[in-house]
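Form P-L/3: holo structure prediction, ligand guanosine-5'-diphosphate.
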Amino acid sequence: MAFEGLTERLQNAMTKMRRKGKVSEADVKEMMREVRLALLEADVNFKVVKDFVKTVSARAVGSEVLESLSPGQQIIKIVSEELTDLMGGEQETIQTAAKAPTVVMMVGLQGAGKTTTAGKLASYLRKNQNKRPLLIAADIYRPAAIQQLETIGKQLDVPVFSMGDQVSPVEIARQGIEKAKAEHLDFVLIDTAGRLQIDETLMQELSDIKEITQPTEIFLVVDAMTGQEAANVASSFNEQLDISGVILTKLDGDTRGGAALSIRAVTGKPIKFTGSGEKLDALEPFYPDRMANRILGMGDMLTLIEKAQQDFDEKKSEEMITKLRENSFDFNDFIEQMDQVSNMGPIEDILKMIPGMNNVPGLDKLQIDPKDTARMKAIVLSMTPQERENPDILSQSRRRRIARGSARPIAEVNRMIKQFNESKKMMSQMSKGNMNGMDNLFGQ
Ligand code: GDP
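OUTPUT (holo model):
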């Protein structure tokens, strides 16, 4: 769970403060000591912590705060405001060029999530802004990168421009933009090469692409799990390329907060989006105030409401019911259903967005292991399209091949297919109004 330790420690410090009717300078000092430790432990950059503590302390010991009727509440408000400020204050959105297509360069270290995020951004632009994007495959070094982007493009039904790995990335980018112009597309998203570490050749190549393509946005994709190291990486990329914004990925993991809280202060560049899952719709605009409230455990109702609206797809649900009734529910539908449910993210994360839920005992036990769904998905994805549509043909030899392809034991493959068949039977009976289908659920 993201920010868990940080939230807990900050809440402890705040709760003590909230209870006090009268607050002294010494109380503020004591609280700020705890806040400082909490931030350092969350891997926030040392200098950022120092400045933050100084600013909050200076505001908190002002006479208008200490002598007010609710000094504890006021101080909590100050902490929240300053956290918001630390992350940039206002939300910053994606810029568009005066003349289409708007060029966006995606840069970052290998594994940060650059290629996936390029896909997510394309999907976001189309879904939320009604734009027509083109993905450009300009990472010619990582063996599977081009294919990965093409697969993502297919999944999203977004065009991908590639020229293989024998043409220079600058040329690929140039020709991609020409194509977007000719086809009157609104955005091009250039997936550039990453390295394990920052190196000069890479930076030179990125500078060359920048010079030729004149991007409106250069988004650096960084992995939130790397803590304040993410801020260092951002600093280096910014020095070399003058990036325009950061996309912070893997906020669904148990990141401690160091990246989210350090990046803006260290680089001066805003976080514009966050990624919170492997799926292609797991991208959200970054709102500093909402993030501050989430870190403080004060709930994030706005995001929760937006998520619920986005994810509830009534038409799809009806389609599923019809399929069940006609007994034509197959593995493709199965995956789609799984995605719909897990679209909203881990259930415990959703509940924690509700103010006050953070402290509910037993919430941590309410977990659906995302690894289980990921494993099932891996198995289904190793099936051929024909097998997915027609599970009856899954012979032993096919099952062995699927087990090898998904790197799961054959017993697990068998179990999953059995479960699928049983639930299909049960659901089909239930959808026809026959509740006896429930018996199958319990293996009777
Ligand atoms: P690249 O080398 O920077 O292009 O990285 P990829 O796009 O290939 O991503 C590396 C891995 O991180 C892949 O397994 C992605 O599915 C995963 N990934 C990317 N973004 C996220 C995210 O927001 N959350 C999670 N959990 N995984 C992510």
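COMMENT: The pocket of guanosine-5'-diphosphate is lined by residues 108, 110-116, 194, 249-250, 252-253, 275-278, 282 (CB under 6 Å).
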